[in-house]
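Collaboration report, partner site 2.

Our partner group contributed sequences for two proteins of shared interest, and the home lab folded both. The records are reproduced in the order in which they were received, starting with the first partner submission.
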Amino acid sequence: MEELLIVTTGGTIDKIYFDDKSDFQVGDPQIGRILQELGVAFRFNVIPIIRKDSLHISDADRELVRDTIAAQAARHVLITHGTDSMVATAKVLSSIEGKTIVLTGALNPARFRGSDAEFNIGCAVGAVQSLPAGVYIAMNGRIWDPAKVRKNVSANRFEAAD
């Protein structure tokens, strides 16, 4: 892997809590800080594209993500994305050829103790380096085909689609 392209779109992984508002807001991308703290042995470039909860990502946003990735020379791409519409975005990206693209996110903000963010990022980094070209989702310790996975909202995890 010559250099890992990281595209950020917001989502829970980047959320921060504001006490005075009693709600979550999408903050700055966390993945660059996480990878630096972990001392990874590869080069990466972070491109923040949008900063939204994935429930608010539009078809136009998905096209922007697709066009941005397609325009980059990098063959290995990791995307941080909110979990609620991650599958929909992955399906749009399937039209990109010759790149290994892995989407990941978190069910709890990266800034929170016990967040799954670092684990999911680690799985995604391993997947993007070892899988053939295509689009994948790395969540809950598994690598998923976007056409065969769904988020089970009540159980708060990804599982095989029916």
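Second partner submission, folded after the first:
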Amino acid sequence: MASSWRRSIGNMRSFVGNSMGGLRGGSNLASWIVAGTLAYFLWVKPSQDLKREQEEKAALAASSDPYRYIEKRKPIPDPQETGLIYGNKNRASRSEE
């Protein structure tokens, strides 16, 4: 009973080791560090920089004209065919009636 439990743990460890390329010890850790660093500099950091740049542009635009109107809420969807509660009021069907 205990040997089957140990064998299943051993099989799981070998499966995980093989799925990670068969590397063990320090070389495995080093490869994961290199992969993580590359992923950070190729995907995470550029997206963070782009987001920060967009926020800075928005702050600059907002500070340039303090009295400019900025919509702070999304329009309420209208279940009818007019689209939105404010906006195009379906003038074509009213003129036909």
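Feedback sent to the partner group on the second submission included the following. Residues 12 and 18 are 10 Å apart (CA to CA). Residues 26-64 form the longest helix (39 residues).
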